[in-house]
Amino acid sequence: MSNKTRALVAGAGGFIGHHLVSYLKERGYWVRGVDIKRPEFCETDADDFQLLDLREPHNCWRALSLNGEAFDEVYQLAADMGGMGFIHSAECEIMHNSALINIHMIDAAARANVSRYFFSSSVCVYRDMQPGEPALAEADAVPAEPDNEYGWEKLYAERMAQTYSRHHPIQVRIARFENCYGPEGTWRGGREKAPAAICRKVAQAPDGGTIPVWGDGSAIRNYTYIDDMVDGIYRLTQSDLEGPVNIGGEEYVTVAKLVQTVIDASGKAVEIEYVDGPVGVHSRNFCKDRIHSLGWQAKTSLAEGIARTYGWIAEQVKKTSEDD
Ligand code: NAD
Questions:
Q1: What is the Å distance from ligand 1's center to 103 Cα?
Q2: What is the CA radius of gyration of the chain?
Q3: Are 177 and 248 in contact (CB under 8 A)?
Q4: How far apart are CA 180 and CA 67, in angstroms?
Q5: Are 83 and 192 in contact (CB under 8 A)?
Q6: Ligand 1 site, residue 6, Cβ cutoff 6 A
Q7: Ligand 1 binding pocket includes 75 (Cβ within 6 Å)
Q8: Rounded to 5 degrees, what are φ and ψ at 102?
Q9: Which terminus of the chain faces fewer neighbouring Cβ atoms within 10 Å, N or C?
């Protein structure tokens, strides 16, 4: 470990954190992962993995303690989160649990002399938009009108981290992620996000069958593939860009297009039945000039990323139906 860069990944048992650990290991880091649970689908690549509840300040201290040395980089991705179904039902859990994690982690990291601190925020901090509206830039999050409590908590946590960076010698980097998807993410159980839920429904449907989809298919989103996202996180953390930075690709599509892309990847004929359900905002469109200034661009098209994700979820569906 002595001459390696030392990183702590909080939320390393989750989707993005797990992939980020592997990315950092490939770059020669010494990595400690920490989470309230281990990664669900395969073993972590972390050198050390600690099971800790980061809502407790003493656990943030334990996560950061390293034989009297300081971590060079902390990546804070731990959060009580899920897709729209979860976000609209578990409002107290999100506001309470994620706020506690973020309050205690930045305080412990600043006091433990961490050099760089990455915080994973979300484009849920922005107001709703109408289709065709010009892109919103990072500064347009204020005056604030997020559509859900998850977005309000992220805004508070952004400010909390920025406040510490003004009063302590800790460099803070903040990304606002658009929807991220890919293999080894939650695909069932109520916390899965739209791309995973749709892949699961299509994988479970018989050829010629019908799947229910929440809303009317017209909502507009960007879906960013996991490999592009972790690369963006890393580049931003190493950069001098202060203040929040949007990370997401350029491909804005309707939910109907997302569903059709999944159906195409499956090779089956599947009909869509639109049903009532929590959809979230009408439209998204964000300026990516800041992240592009670091030479980052999303490389994976929706069709390519969905083909890989569908393949992985279809395998999980097959395995679990064989186990039942
Ligand atoms: P995830 O749910 O897979 O990972 C979050 C991890 O945090 C989970 O493994 C969970 O166990 C852990 N966690 C929750 N409570 C904890 C606690 N008390 N102590 C320790 N660990 C705890 O989510 P993800 O998709 O990997 O998202 C990572 C981060 O990125 C989150 O902060 C999320 O809000 C943000 N984000 C994600 C997306 C996306 O599309 N996935 C979009 C915008 C922002």
A1: 15
A2: 19
A3: yes
A4: 35
A5: yes
A6: no
A7: no
A8: -70, -35
A9: C
- Beta pairing, strands 210-214 & 220-225: unpaired
Ligand 1 pocket check for 36: Cβ under 6 Å: yes
Longest dimension (CA), the chain: 62
Identify the residue whose tokens are 């980061």: 54
Q: Which two tokens stand for residue 82?
A: 């899920």
Ligand 1 contact, 193 CB (< 6 A): yes
Instruction: Report which ligand 1 atom has the smallest distance to the Cα of 177.
Output: 43
Q: CA-CA distance, 219 to 204, in Å (whole number)?
A: 24
Q: Among the options 29, 75, 117, 150, which is catalytic?
A: 150
Q: Which candidate, 56, 65, 48, places its Cα nearest to that of 12?
A: 48
Asked about 23 being catalytic, the answer comes back as no
Spell out the per-residue pLDDT of the chain, length 324, in tens: 668 999 999 999 999 999 999 999 999 999 999 999 999 999 999 999 999 999 999 999 999 999 999 999 999 999 999 888 888 889 999 999 999 999 999 999 999 999 999 999 999 999 999 999 999 999 999 999 999 999 999 999 999 999 999 999 999 999 999 999 999 999 999 999 999 999 999 999 999 999 999 999 999 999 999 999 999 999 999 999 999 999 999 999 999 999 999 999 999 999 999 999 888 899 999 999 999 999 999 999 999 999 999 999 999 999 998 876
Residue showing tokens 């990315």? 23
